[in-house]
Design the sequence.
């Protein structure tokens, strides 16, 4: 009598899953990061540079102070990072004439400087620049530099057209275009309006055109 051998079905072999090791440390929360920067910028505009505190930002962003200090080493570093967000892309106008281009730039500047958010923010930032090289560097290389670069391209185009002198002192011209707005915003409190925009452009063209010597 032949015995039959029973073969047990052990089933298919199961592959052993490889578990990747977790990265060390806590992952950075993008949502918290954005909320903190937004809260900082909002408080800068509402209460001014000197009154912004880590506690205030934490309450506004609904995060803990430890969360803020995980991302930024100090109040100054946080504010400097938030200030960078003021910079927006500045469109370089091309109206076909130097006067039209300068007017477009000046009217855009008037819009920016008349914005209540910016009128509350700017004085505190200017004062902070005198006390903090970090803040000063951010302001100078941020929205101010962006606006000056845009105006410089318009000035270079005007020189190429022959509307402005080839010997134009570009830095002086940039100061002439931007200075009156700052002066009225920070010192005299005079109107920042279309009349100012047109007056500055006329002054610029009269003082630096190829016809004026």
Sequence:
């Amino acid at each position: 009598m032949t015995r039959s051998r029973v073969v047990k079905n052990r089933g298919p072999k199961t592959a052993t899953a490889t578990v990747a090791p977790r990265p060390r440390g806590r992952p950075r929360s993008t949502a918290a990061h954005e909320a903190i920067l937004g809260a900082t910028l909002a408080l800068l505009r509402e209460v001014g540079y000197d009154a912004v505190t880590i506690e205030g930002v934490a309450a506004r962003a609904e995060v803990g102070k430890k969360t803020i200090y995980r991302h930024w080493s100090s109040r100054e570093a946080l504010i400097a990072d938030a200030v960078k967000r003021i910079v927006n892309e500045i469109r370089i106008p091309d109206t076909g004439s130097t006067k039209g281009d300068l007017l477009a730039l000046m009217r855009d500047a008037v819009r920016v400087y008349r914005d209540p958010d910016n009128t509350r923010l700017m004085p505190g930032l200017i004062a902070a620049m005198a006390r903090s090289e970090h803040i000063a560097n951010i302001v100078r290389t941020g929205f101010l530099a962006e606006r000056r670069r845009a105006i410089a391209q318009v000035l270079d185009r005007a020189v190429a057209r022959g509307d402005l002198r080839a010997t134009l002192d570009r830095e002086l011209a940039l100061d002439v275009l931007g200075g009156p707005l700052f002066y009225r915003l920070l010192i005299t409190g005079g109107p920042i309006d279309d009349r100012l925009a047109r007056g500055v452009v006329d002054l610029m063209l009269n003082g630096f055109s190829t016809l004026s010597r």
Notes: DSSP finds ten helices and no strands in the chain. The first helix runs from residue 30 to 47.
